[in-house]
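Field reference: "sequence" (input) and "structure" (output). Example, Glucose-1-phosphate thymidylyltransferase:
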Amino acid sequence: MTTASATTQAKPIKGILLAGGSGTRLHPMTLATSKQLLPVYDKPMIYYPLTTLMLAGIQDILIITTPQDMPQFQRLLGNGSQFGVRFTYRIQSSPDGLAQAFLIGEDWIDGAPCALALGDNLIFADHLSGLLQAAAQRVQQAKGATVFAYQVRDPERYGVVSFDAHGRALSIVEKPEQPESNWAVTGLYFYDQRVTEFARQVRPSARGELEITDLNKMYLEEGTLHVDRLGRGCAWLDAGMPDSLMQAGNFVQTIQSRQGMLVGSPTEVAFRMGYIDRDALLAQAKKMSKTELGYMLRLVGQQQG
């Protein structure tokens, strides 16, 4: 009875899409535009983490970006109604760490559980929606946080999580010189309603940033951090460097051309999640009638007609 009552009263989970920073690793491409607006094959980079949040069942999304880039994001995304979601915009004046997102959006979060997706991350898996919705439900119904780990060849570039013999997370270290494992924490995080309270306790690191790893450690130390390991059949791409940006584009092109399956389309995800109806889907497909993306959206609508 108590559990059912708590679940009923739980606030809907919100989502933050962090699209700030200066994109220095992608200069000179990012001297005149945001990294998250660069194309990954046939869509802006930001579409991919946006669809990740949408697949988790999140419809209230805060977009955090720089003062100079905000007008471009507003022109691209509007208020979100075309995708059946709600966008709010906030400015990050200087990139002072990922955990800063929860301080910038504290009043908007308003005591709700919240997910954070980095604007240059792409996650693809056939069963991804189920994983994401389970993570969202977990932080809505109980105390704690959920992060996702993925095996990489260069773990020293990331926050690295190590596990004990039973698969429980033991430690998380930010960019370690000698990593204890090759499991990197991806740019997708789910937190309970205490996240802003915890974020206020994070202190600047040696490089002067509010590290997301330090926030995750708070949950780890109290024993409420859940780590989902993404195994075979999953792809995680950090498109923040030239090589990885090209790899991400090639990956999307391969999936879409060989399987006829859209990757990172907010319109398609909105339709499949029930956020928009078939008429709205086809209307958006018509606006892009001269593109392959528009053609594929039209096929989605016809198949479901």
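The first strand starts at residue 14 and ends at 19.
The mean pLDDT is 93.
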